[in-house]
Design brief:
alpha+beta; Cytidine Deaminase, domain 2
């Protein structure tokens, strides 16, 4: 073309990269891509007219992994140059979709026979929280998961839990059994003395009303601890 006009067929240098990245994903799935490239696929939608590879790498460098980036607080995400509302929204939509998907694998299903899926859901929901959160999974007589509720949210290392309130809520939902779950933002899922004492009180309160506490699971970033597995219940 002449006269200073750009050729209409000209594409930005990153256009071919996007097509190749999508093809690799469709052929090999997420395992075919490192964290930053999987993140690029999300950023394509938020920033359709930008080369997003530098931003994807900057986010991974800042937060450490794909999962840590998705679960980072919006204010922290915005601290990275190039991140605006559109990027935050796309990341949080993907996070919410992943959580909804893992929740769908366990709700209204026998919890004890879907233990792996249950743990995956709890990890997705709680492992990356920066504050302690106490969650209760309510089961019916057939151990089908009928409700999933966050009862308390606390500080970085403490969540107030009241055994009477736990059992009261189980009665309101006509639950026959419960599974207790909380996270340790420190990453270490080892039960504390306070965790053990609190669980003992809930077990005792449940016994009086024929409500079984199947387990208390502590979720950390890199693992979990089961009170039943540790023979603490």
């Amino acid at each position: 073309m002449t006269g200073g006009f750009e050729d209409a067929s000209h594409k930005p240098h990153y256009s071919g990269h996007r097509d190749r990245l999508r093809d690799r994903f469709m052929q090999g799935g997420s395992d075919a891509l490192p964290d930053y490239e999987l993140l690029e696929l999300i950023l394509f939608r938020a920033l359709p007219r930008r080369d997003v590879k530098p931003l994807a790498k900057a986010l991974i460098d800042r937060f450490g992994s794909f999962a840590d980036t998705l679960t980072a607080k919006p204010d922290r995400l915005r601290e990275v140059k190039g991140v605006g509302d559109a990027v935050v929204a796309e990341l949080k939509i993907v996070q919410a979709a992943a959580l909804r998907l893992s929740q769908g694998a366990v709700m209204n299903r026998p919890a004890l026979s879907s233990w792996s899926a249950l743990l995956d859901y709890c990890k997705a929901a709680m492992a990356y929280n920066d504050k302690e959160q106490f969650r209760i999974l309510f089961l019916d007589r057939k151990n089908v998961l009928i409700a999933d509720e966050v009862q308390q949210e606390g500080t970085i290392d403490h969540t107030p839990v009241y055994p009477r309130e736990v059992i009261k809520r189980a009665l309101e939902l006509a639950a026959s059994a419960i599974i207790l779950v909380h996270n340790h933002p420190s990453g270490d899922p080892t039960p504390s003395r306070a965790d053990i004492e609190m669980t003992k009180k809930i077990v005792e309160a449940g016994e009086k009303l024929n409500i079984v506490i199947h387990d208390h699971i502590i979720i950390g970033r890199h693992g979990h601890a089961s009170f039943k597995g540790l023979q603490l219940i």
